[in-house]
Amino acid sequence: MMLEAHELTRLAGRRTLLDGVSLDVRAGEFLAVVGPNGSGKSSLLSILSGLRTPDRGHVCLEGAPLASLSRRQAAQRIALVQQQAETEQHMTAWDAVALGRTPHLSLLRPFGPTDAKAVDAALDVVDMGAMRARQWQTLSGGERQRLHVARALAQEPDIIILDEPTNHLDIQHQLELLALMRRLPKTIVAALHDLNHAMTFADRVAVLQQGRLEGLGAPADVLTARRIAKVFKVEARLIPDGAARPLIAFGVSAPAAG
């Protein structure tokens, strides 16, 4: 396993954000994390990335405690694209993506041609190469979101963790971004708002509800009408789509759970 989370608990005052969550992330897979607002998705991703530590439990990266790594060591292996990752600094799109090279740099290893090449390649992957000279403050929310993903790609990690990466993107760029994540030779963990995106692109889906793991497995096995009704409080119907995975159609309200 690339990542293993054991009994993760995260508290905020008297509120429990995560309650004993255990799961694994397999090498090369696309794991989608879904759940209602406040279910613990962002808390889980921040702990899996090493950005925050749990109040109880631990995370292992390829068998070694993630907490034993420095922030720089962890950042060389894991990139995090946060939901609200903004900057007030005046910089170009290229400079913003170049920040992804920081974990690889030191006094003895300054920014060089290899780093510039990684930045250029990351911009091209998210179709932002033509905007490399644009000032950050002049970019739209969707353009900034694509640059956040490019920054993670420039970091050249083994694992990319994304917190609702399709925010601010139009439908074309939502689908293109998720298809890209699916194709990358990386391990992907992404909190997704759209259950049909999880059904379509993920290898496995983890469902969170009130800080607890409600389900983990193949999308069609986990995103059942009954579980969607229980967790999201909406009526859902799965529509077969030939050889592809089913589509989810939603109603206004969920039937009473029996």
Automatic annotation (TrEMBL):
<keyword id="KW-0813">Transport</keyword>
<feature type="domain" description="ABC transporter">
    <location>
        <begin position="3"/>
        <end position="235"/>
    </location>
</feature>
<dbReference type="GO" id="GO:0005524">
    <property type="term" value="F:ATP binding"/>
</dbReference>
<dbReference type="GO" id="GO:0016887">
    <property type="term" value="F:ATP hydrolysis activity"/>
</dbReference>
<dbReference type="Pfam" id="PF00005">
    <property type="entry name" value="ABC_tran"/>
</dbReference>
<dbReference type="InterPro" id="IPR003593">
    <property type="entry name" value="AAA+_ATPase"/>
</dbReference>
<dbReference type="InterPro" id="IPR027417">
    <property type="entry name" value="P-loop_NTPase"/>
</dbReference>
<keyword id="KW-0067">ATP-binding</keyword>
<comment type="similarity">
    <text>Belongs to the ABC transporter superfamily.</text>
</comment>
<keyword id="KW-0547">Nucleotide-binding</keyword>
<protein>
    <submittedName>
        <fullName>Iron ABC transporter ATPase</fullName>
    </submittedName>
</protein>
<dbReference type="InterPro" id="IPR003439">
    <property type="entry name" value="ABC_transporter-like_ATP-bd"/>
</dbReference>
